[in-house]
Design a protein that fits this description.
alpha/beta, 5-stranded mixed beta barrel, 22% helix
């Protein structure tokens, strides 16, 4: 079994350059949830010059719409959604400083090119394991687009959140192996 690389969010370019497709990672720090509509709104804000609800430089976006928290928990099930649903928006966010995304499944050619051009990675985590993944989230706060309910942007504090580098900044993919 390979060594698990411990990363502190937000990520630096050096962090991203140290990663290769297939690496197991453990994330600690702040990550943000966002799905389709939130991605669209972020891109519209960039296009119109409006301030974003969080700093994109070095940020990690988790493609997740968590369920409500049970009593005594900070968040409900928090599993990944299908990454390709964000393909229309990811290149613009990557070009504006996003360093990593977390989801499940394949990414399109334009996203993979943006990862290489702007030095970013796409991480995958286990679909269907939202209850397990929620145990790595120690705080959750809605910071934007509250009207979207479960798909609002949340700021998550995570400790040792597990993922695998699915696409690295060099054009390699676990799906090619």
């Amino acid at each position: 079994m390979s060594e698990i690389k411990k990363l502190q969010a937000p990520l630096t370019e050096a962090d991203v350059r140290s990663l290769k497709a297939g690496d197991q990672v453990s994330l600690t720090g702040v990550i943000y949830t966002a799905r389709d509509i939130a991605h669209k709104r972020l891109c519209e804000s960039i296009d119109s010059g409006r301030k974003l609800p969080f700093e994109l430089e070095g940020a990690i976006i988790y493609f997740c719409g968590p369920t409500p928290a049970r009593p005594g928990r900070v968040i409900g099930a928090a599993g990944p959604t299908t990454s390709s649903r964000m393909d229309a928006f990811s290149p613009k966010l990557i070009a504006n400083g996003l360093r990593a995304m977390i989801g499940k499944g394949y990414r399109g050619d334009e996203v993979r090119e943006a990862l290489k051009k702007y030095c970013a990675v796409h991480l995958s985590t286990i679909g269907g394991a939202g209850a397990l993944l929620s145990k790595y989230i120690v705080s959750a706060e809605v910071i934007a687009y509250e009207d979207l309910g479960a798909e609002a942007i949340r700021k998550l504090q995570v400790v040792d959140f597990p993922a695998i580098v699915a696409y690295d900044a060099y054009g390699n993919s676990v799906y090619q192996k």
